[in-house]
Each structure stands twice: as C-alpha cells, then as structure tokens.
Amino acid sequence: SSTEEPELRSPILCILGHVDTGKTSLLDKIRSTNVQGGEARGITQQIGASFIPVENIRDQAKDLAERLKFEFKLPGLLLIDTPGHESFNNLRSRGSGLCDLAILVIDIMHGLEAQTIESINLLRMRKTPFIVALNKVDRIYEWRPCRNVDIRESLKVQSRHAAQEFDSRVKDTVAQLAVQELNASLYWKNPDHRKYVSLVPTSAVTGEGIPDLMVLATQLMQKIMAEKVTYRDELQCTILEVKTIEGLGATVDAVLVNGVLSEGDKIVVSGFGAPIVSTIRSLLTPPPLRETRVKTQLIPNKSVKASMGVKIVAPGLEKAVPGTSLLVCTEDDDLEDLKAQAQSE
Ligand code: GTP
Ligand code: MG
Ligand code: NA
C-alpha cells in the first residue's frame, strides 16, 4: 500500500585516505577480521567490498544507540576499502564515484597529508558527502584506552594532559581543513551537517569511536539521504576490478548498487576494443563480514539483490573496462543499443 515505508538498501560507504592512516584496520575492527595483517607490507592494493549486517552494527553500537534513542532501519552497510598509496588514484576515484557516503580517514598524529587532500578533491568533484574518521587517538601521549566505547565516554576518563593534546590536535586538523576551504567540527558539536564536515575520533586498535562512526554514518543516510538509499529495481552495477582466477576463468568484482542479478543473465559490458556480450556463469558473494578480496569461502548464489559486493564469473570478461557499468539484456532490450551504450562509457 502507499502508506508502506519505502524499502531501503544498504548504503555504500567508501573508505578513503592517505596511506597507513588505518583504513583497513578500521574495517578489520568493525568486522573482527585481520585483512591488514595479510597484506604485503601492509599496503592495500585493491578495492574490497564487505557487507556489515545491521544486527552486527546494532550490537557494536548498542550503548550509544540506546543513549541517543537511535533506531537502525537500514539492512546494513556495504563498506568499500581503497588503497592510500599514491599510485592508486584510479581506485580511489572509482570508489569515491560510486559510494553514497565516504569516510575520509585522517591520522590524528599527522593531520592532512598528500592523499588526504587528493581524496578531498575527488569527493568534491563528485559531490560525494563525507565524514572524517580522526584515527589513532590511542597514540596520544598518556591516552587511557577504553575498549570499544563511544568516544565521549572515553574522553571523560582521559587525564588533563591527554585531553589537552586531543583538543589541540583536533584544532590543528580543523585549521588544516579550513585551508582546504572546508568547515569541520567534532560530530557532536556539528551545528549543520550540510555545512560542516563531521569529525569522529577513532582508534582501530582499541575500538574507541567505532560505535560513533557507525551510528553517525547510519544516521546521516537515514535522515538526510534516505531517498538516495531507497531500493530501486532498475539495475545499477559498477565493475571495480577484473581478475582471471584459476579454476574460475575471467571474473569481475562489482558493486551491485540497485536491482537484481541472476545466474544465466545475458550481460553487456564495455570492453577494451569492443563491447562484451556474455552470460553470467556464477555469482559469488563473500559471507557477511568478509569481503570480495578474500579468495576463500565465496558463496554461489542463484541471484543477488542490491546493494552487495559480488564476484561475477562469465566468459570474455578479461577484457572488461574497470569503472564502467554492467548492463543486463532482457527480452525487451535491443542488444545493439546496449552494446552502444556500454561502449559509450
Ligand atoms: P593503505 O591501505 O596501505 O593505504 O593503509 P591503511 O590506511 O589501510 O592503514 P592500515 O590499516 O594498513 O594501518 C597502517 C598501520 O597503522 C598498521 O601498522 C596499523 O596497525 C596501524 N594502525 C591503524 N589504525 C591504528 C590506530 O587506530 N591506532 C594505532 N596505534 N595504530 C593503528
Ligand atoms: Mg589498507
Ligand atoms: Na597500510
């Protein structure tokens, strides 16, 4: 009926920032995994998508949500990790272009760095709303770690010294953001989310501030951007990466933003040289709290509904162009039209 609330999909959150600010570590903390520890020299080289179910978020942010009387209505969050190393500008660009909201991670001990500024410019160019995780608060001198609590609870127990250093580092970051012509404020003091960027102090080591990050991201999506995350049937699917995998053949890692993909779907994809027409052999998803990057444990699906990170297996995909849309050709579509559309991207 018309009085029913619209169906919401999980918002797509992209994690961006300078190298080693703690993007993957924050994700690991949220998922209770250790992807960062398995990376070569600890450097992220790919984009990874992971789905965090709402039950998990509710659980981690229970105390804060209760205090704020905040209710989670979204099915979950789809988090996309990106590399901070300077050579991966294309991956940051792809991630920031596709997400509903970005989390820009800044190391509180370093302030703004080269790829922080590059990320800010990407987000601005694409008009992507974002919040800042001011990470590594636990490195402040004499910081008393309070595991997994919300940041204001933790600030209450800090020594005068630690609290002063915290204040002065927040002030420095606010001043550096002002140089980039951005107004910023600690999120609980933010007078207007449309005019000020919210800062969420966090630690990926102690978990402090992680409840805040999840509540704030969800709150912004539910309150201000609900329309953006209203589920739509019309297919919207972006290819992030192309990989040939032994035993599977040509695959792409994609983010399904809206709509449904099914095994056997006839697909049209932009290809180097010519458009690719193929049929989906299998649709693989990581179990909740895992990500598409991790090779093991992928689950085959008959169909997948947005939003979700998905590995698509189909012959011919090795020539697909990352960053472009995947189209499905139904009985009503004209294949030549779709090929032209795919190739025009
Ligand atoms: P790239 O993907 O390579 O850009 O790095 P990243 O932003 O994902 O950072 P990563 O998670 O690899 O962390 C870099 C280093 O910082 C690792 O040694 C982490 O253990 C450490 N680190 C991350 N977050 C925190 C934090 O909150 N506190 C402390 N003390 N160390 C952290
Ligand atoms: Mg990383
Ligand atoms: Na790193």
UniProtKB/TrEMBL annotation:
Annotated localization: Cytoplasm
Tell me the domain of life: Eukaryota
Ranges where the Tr-type G domain occurs: 8-226
Protein family (similarity comment): Belongs to the TRAFAC class translation factor GTPase superfamily. Classic translation factor GTPase family. IF-2 subfamily.
Q: What name has this protein been given in UniProt?
A: Eukaryotic translation initiation factor 5B
Which gene carries the instructions for this protein? eIF5b
Q: Which residues of the full protein are shown?
A: 464 to 808 of 1057
